[in-house]
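This part of the workshop introduces the protein records we will be handling. A record pairs a protein's sequence with a compact description of its fold. Comparing a sequence with its tokens is the quickest way to learn the format. The record below serves as our worked example for the rest of this section:
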Amino acid sequence: MFYDLNIPYTPDDPEISSTLNFLAELGYTTVALSQTLTGKLPPNPTAPSLPRNVPKNLTVLTRVNLTLSDPAQNQRLNTLAQAYDLLAVRPANEKALLNACTNLECDVISLDLSVRHPYHFKFKMLSAAIARGIRFEICYGPGITGSGTDARRNLIGNAMALIRATRGRGIIISSEARKALGVRAPWDVINLACVWGLSQERGKEAVCEEARKTTALAKLKRTSWRGIIDVVDGGEKPKPKSEKSGPKQKGPGNKQKDTPQSDTNSDTLKRKASAEEPEKPLSKREMKRRAKKARFGVVDEESANSTGATS
């Protein structure tokens, strides 16, 4: 199962149908259509309507990308997370990145690796986010779709620095491709991750296992209380069957018995159970006890007979 959790999408996008079909042909099974929000959040956030012509073997999720530049811009993330399947934040500076790693309740931290960052990735800061179940995302689309040599060079350098700082753990790889030409096959993405410094096993986990964990944890956060307690059954008692009103006609074929039906059923069940239960085999101790009792009984009878004859 291969995942691509970042496909930019707008409801009036004419290229989305061909992109989804191409992703399904390449072997992807789950895709997240992302919408980017900047600035002030809308009062009632709603996910965009999904496209109609979706391949049958492709699972489509909704995702929102929130650009953060101010650490205090986290007032309504809970309401925003309830409207989408995935919540990703894109920090614009080091303070916003630190806040996202330590405080924000998000699913993915997606960094724009095609630009040069004025700070270095630190293991202590990134490991705090990984311990909380948050994954870091590397998007290869900006370095492939003709963004220039600078974007490609920055993508390679930043990806290597991110992999080095996270020790290769907690990383997912997405395309962020706006057209089908920017998408690559899963095994091509794994080979690309090997160029950045990941092993082949870690590269496959970034496209398969880590992405699957991201979607599973995001679903747990939204359908349970703090990802711990999930209500499976409400525990309501089944409603009694409504009895039809109206007197029943008595006839020769419909005679009422004096005994209630529940008592007769319980008696018949007890009888059947007692009749069907097989006898348990005797233990060795019980057999010895019975043999000893029988032997002492014969001795008592012989002594009684002898005493009667002498008298």
About this structure: The beta strands are 2-8, 28-37, 59-68, 86-91, 108-110, 135-139, 171-174. Confidence is low (pLDDT under 50) at residues 250-264. Residues 284-310 form the longest helix (27 residues).
